[in-house]
Design goal:
The structure is a single chain. The protein is an alpha/beta fold and 382 residues long. The chain is globular and about 75 Å long. The protein has helices spanning 10-21, 39-51, 64-69, 100-109, 115-122, 133-144, 165-176, 196-199, 212-223, 227-237, 241-247, 253-271, 275-289, 293-314, 332-335, 344-359, 364-378; strands at 28-32, 78-81, 153-158, 182-188, 203-206. It is built from 17 helices and five strands. It has three domains: 3-208, 3-Layer(aba) Sandwich (Rossmann fold), CATH 3.40.50.300; 213-247; 253-378, Zinc Finger, Delta Prime, domain 3. The protein has a five-stranded parallel beta sheet, with helices on both faces. The termini are far apart. The protein is 52% helix and 7% strand. Helix 7 links the parallel strand 3 and strand 4.
Amino acid sequence: MLFSEILGHDYNKNHLLKSASQGRIPHAQLFIGPEGCGTLPMAIAYSQYILCQNSDNENSNGNEACNLKFENYSHPDLHFIFPTVTTEDVKSKPKSIDFIIDFRQFLKENPYGSLFDWYQLLDVKNKQGEIRVDDAQEILKSLALKSYEGGYKIMIIWMAEKLNIAASNKLLKLLEEPTDKTVFILISENEEDIIQTIRSRCQVVHFNALPEKVIEEGLIIKYNIDPKTATKIAHQAQGNFNKALQLLSDDGEDSHFEKWFVEWVRAAFRAKGNAAAIQDLINWSDQIAGLGRETQKKFLDFCINMFRQALLLNYETPKLVYLEPKVDKFKLENFAPFVNGNNIQDIFKELSDAMYHIERNGNAKIILTDLSIKLTRLIHKK
């Protein structure tokens, strides 16, 4: 992957290029940035620059055979670790190596893809992905071998916040006593979810969300989108290039989430003093409960965002509102008056609590039904 293919982050690109060209390569780095900002593509481009001994900003003029291997993300000295779950093919002790072909295909299709996209590809259902101690054992095996090219070996750990305790402890020992010419690049969206002892042993590089102008230019150049549409999508994407790509498709996750959200709040409106409408909320809870935990968590996070946007509109700050629901006969400005300072904190609390309980394997049907009945009361609070 070429540095020129990565959107924005010129300062971080220059920092990584300069340090690598001067031979100052830390053995452990932690790339922190929000979804869709390009931390994973940057880690791959940086790895290519190091392993192929490239000499310019375009990641070329080095070992051309080595550069060709990176086109398929299959360089033998580049290793990936990422969250996994059990599947029909891998019924126990799943490891990253078991899914490496799928992961390489995932990278080819969209290197800006999110963890949720990866889970969708794995069809996780009610399972929740994590990086297990078996992966840490694979790291030990991989790093015990000599490098194929005779130089560095690089281990990219994507979504490092998903390391479980056993894997974190084993990784910690590797970071404390690294083997020669070994580079760890940990990638995370939530720095605080990584144990402090691992964070303290890494050089942290922070990445910001992408500016609207950068996303707009990326859509125009890479996908030949007309400037007017690109400007609109870039605003709605809120610094997330992956979301911008989803907005290009009417079948993106947000379109499904919008539909479920509108069904939910409409049923909640009807349910006050109408016992028959309670059945609609129960049916809705049944539908969402069957989606799988990761989808449920993502949807509840979307709901929090919808309520936040409605509140901003109610408080007459339309410039901060970027969501434009496409569901028939649903307008955010008509919904906004029902979201105010008297109920927003309670709504946020109930949604956050529901996410917490679902993440900890609570019964989704009970959690969502309880949330729906509470919303019926809160949404009518003046």
